[in-house]
Amino acid sequence: MHLLIGVTGGIAAYKACELTSLALKAGHDVRVMMTRRATDFVGPLTFAALSGHPVLTDDSEQALDHIQWAKWADVTCLAPLTASTLGRLACGICDDVLTTTVMALPEGRPVVLGPAMNTEMWFAPVVQRNLRWLDELGGFHVVPPVDKRLACGDLGPGGLAEPADLLAACERALDG
Q1: pTM of the predicted model, to two decimals?
Q2: Residue 46: pLDDT above 70?
Q3: I want to staple 100 with a disulfide (CB 3.0 to 4.6 A). Which of 23, 83, 94, 150 is the partner?
């Protein structure tokens, strides 16, 4: 499987490193794209070293290659997925390399979503609406956040699902 991992700007970005490693160990070819905010949490060099591929960011030399990257991907996994990026996807706003690449995916290519955000944000009506909108479009598979103590100290749903569960969802999405 060609797995394209999209990392957005949340504290759980470090878990995308483990997802990358697990996918490689399972024999998958992995590339990573990152939002500008994601690079505040984990550097592109980390993902380049793990994946063996350059990382697609707004500032990278590969930024104009988003169409080729979209065609390359069998499955795309956005983890962690922030409420902000979720909203932009639901509304079709392509204002960075990650959202532009997702919008360029060929029809029928699955996208696995690993949302991670504060519990109140997760339950916010607009976030739930955005999830419904993407569900109505088809091809989006949500791996719900887990209950845990979040970085802000709150306790409840909002933590990024375990990397192994995200990878399993990607493999199922490709088969299904």
Answers
A1: 0.95
A2: yes
A3: 94
Residue 63 has a pLDDT of: 65
According to the 3-state scheme, what is the secondary structure of the chain? CEEEEEECCCHHHHHHHHHHHHHHHCCCEEEEEECCCHHHCCCHHHHHHHHCCCCECCCCCCHHHHHHHHHHCCEEEEEEECHHHHHHHHHCCCCCHHHHHHHCCCCCCCEEEEECCCHHHHHCHHHHHHHHHHHHHCCEEECCCEEEECCCCCEEEEECCCHHHHHHHHHHHHHC
Number of domains making up the chain: 1
Residue-number span of the structural domain to which 102 is assigned: 2-175
Q: What average pLDDT does the segment 14-37 reach?
A: 98
Is 70 exceeded by the pLDDT of residue 57? yes
**Structure-token pair, residue 73:** 């991907």
Angle between helices 83-91 and 125-137 (to 10 degrees): 50
Q: Is the pLDDT of residue 94 over 80?
A: yes
Euclidean distance between CA atoms 116 and 170, whole angstroms: 17
How far apart, in whole angstroms, are the C-alpha atoms of residue 142 and residue 96?
22
What's the CATH code of the domain at 51? 3.40.50.1950
CA triple 159-162-166, angle to 5 deg = 110
What is the structure's pLDDT at 43?
96
